[in-house]
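I hope you will forgive my troubling you with a question about protein structure. You will find the record immediately after this paragraph.
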Amino acid sequence: MKARGTFSRHPKTARPGKRPSRPDSFPPVGVVDVVEKDADGDLFVKLVKAHADSPAVRLTPGAGEVAAGAPGLGDRLLVRFEILENGEREARLIKRLGQSAHRILGVIRKSRGEVRVEPVDRRTKDSLLLIPGEALGLADGDLVLAQIGGASDRPHGPKRGKVIETVGREDDPRAASLIAIHTHGVPTGFSDAAEAEALSAQPPTLAGRTDLRHLPLVTIDPPDARDHDDAVFAEPDDDPTNPGGWIAWVAIADLAAYVRPGSALDVDARDKGNSVYFPDRVVPMLPETLSAGLCSLLEREARACIAVRMVFDARGRKTGHKFVRGLMRSAAKLSYEQAQAAIDGAPDDRAGPLMDAVLTPLWAAYAVLKAGREARSPLAIESAERRIVIGADGHVASITPRAALEAHKLIEEFMIQANVCAAQTLEQRRTPLIYRIHDAPSAEKLLNLADFLATLAIPWTKGETVRTDRFNRLLDQTRGGAHAEIVNEVVLRTQMQAQYSPDNIGHFGLNLDKYAHFTSPIRRYADLIVHRALIRALGLGGDGLSDDDIKHLKETAEHITAAERRAMAAERDAIDRYVAAFLADRVGATFEGRITGVTRFGLFVRLTETGADGLVPVSSLGGEYFIHDDRTHALVGQRSGERWRLGRRVEVKLKEATPITGGLLLEMLSDPEPADPTAPRARLGVRGKARPPVKRGGRR
């Protein structure tokens, strides 16, 4: 996102899916990335090699895909482009692409003398018939990676294939993350040369560094964190010209000292782009020797760091900062929960001794930074994250809401300020860098938001200058009310996706003119580039940003943006599979939920208990045609006028939960809302099927 006044405006365009396109502007079939999701949950795609101004196209399900749900943000797909009678262009899904369009990750199924590979991807129904002799040593239920190859002896039968690799077993509770890794082509492992470089790394010395070992810096992370790349400390500013001011230190692991430009470690790290986190494992960007060893800010161990000393006045305005390349020693490793409990009056044996010297000053400094944050008014969207707890047997033990502690917000704000300092310093020194940018919402998204809010009788002035504080007033207006959750969701969907770029347009959501990622180099390649840029700009050593790094900044930014979206898609898919496994023994049970997506092929309902999303197919909603009204974000019965509206709370029954695909199929138990007599009846719709009468109150 970007700061007010720093971004270029979007030209006025029609709403997504409504703009006519030249017949020759798209190929018949193309490879696309899923780049947007609107308030209804519809997805929009762009050609991978499209021009920056190329329009996004609405995605529609392919054959056999309707009942299992749609792809998600970050997926790469093969689609067929079609032009409808009204001139609207659609992208019809053929299949989702992983490492190769010719590879399938699937499960061995043996039946009637045949051995097939049934794909685990719920977005395709194609299976492979194994070439004779390929099934030797394979058992029913084996999880395999198969290659398409060979002609079928039946013109309309399945394609032939051969097994490349046996990955595991479908009944392995940890198969969910393995499937996600292979399906999305997440790079794993390291080259022998990279492993050798990591093993040869030596502990840091004070040579060429500022000694920071006297500062009681502490790491505050999740309780199960294996790597620690940031530490914090704060103290009152004793400068008499800055009464009530604070000095805040943020020290970050000096990864650049170990991962040199062009080295084998650098090649592997760039290829991965980032670490990928699953409920049961991590696919790290660096070998564990570094990520959990020499580069991790371990308690009471001397570690190389790049630190920034920031000075704030009593109103939270930064008055100065300075970067140093230092040697530090973490005074303690705390979890968010430990630090928060200590501040709330219940310190444990580890946090108690740190109260006066470390924790109390940190919270006092945060109070000042918080005042500055509130004055800046970044987007205040609330995120209802779920935490999946894996038991010792590898199965899901529980799915619980992730607590939003003040300790999380403290670390977040310290990191944001350090990231701002990095971008400012590099701009001042005229050193190229990779920014973290986030564009303002497009005109189409804002029109969709206004239309949706009108259905809730919430005013939103069309054409008003888009600013973060305008969104925050809307969120404050609805917070605590019946529509709070869905308005928060729709505002989130209205935002554009953040990305990396060597060209700055600011960060709209954080309401900042300059922003770069500096604080997580162990898990993000973007941060390593910024570290190297600081070393080069400030003359902190000979291992800074290379001329070759600079030459390829744009290419690197595009690559790591794609890697980030690949990671998001893989993490989401793994979570879907774990949740489906968790709910598999509750098929037939009823759940409360909320409609979070309205599409022409059905309703997406988010279950309140687990946060899982499932599909209610339009074919199960009733015996009439349903019109997708994109203005009111509803499915409307053509004959009855009854409607299913975005944001409505409903009761559903779980009909299917398929762990191997992550799919949840739901049955609607609630009654539709009655017809709106003032709404015009549309003429075209999607056919539903007859269903038994539903008693008043929703239960059959």
Summary: Residues 23-96 form a domain with the OB fold (Dihydrolipoamide Acetyltransferase, E2P) fold (CATH 2.40.50.140). The two ends are 47 Å apart (CA to CA). Residues 1-24, 63-69, 682-687, 689-700 have pLDDT under 50 and may be disordered. DSSP finds 13 helices and 32 strands in the chain.
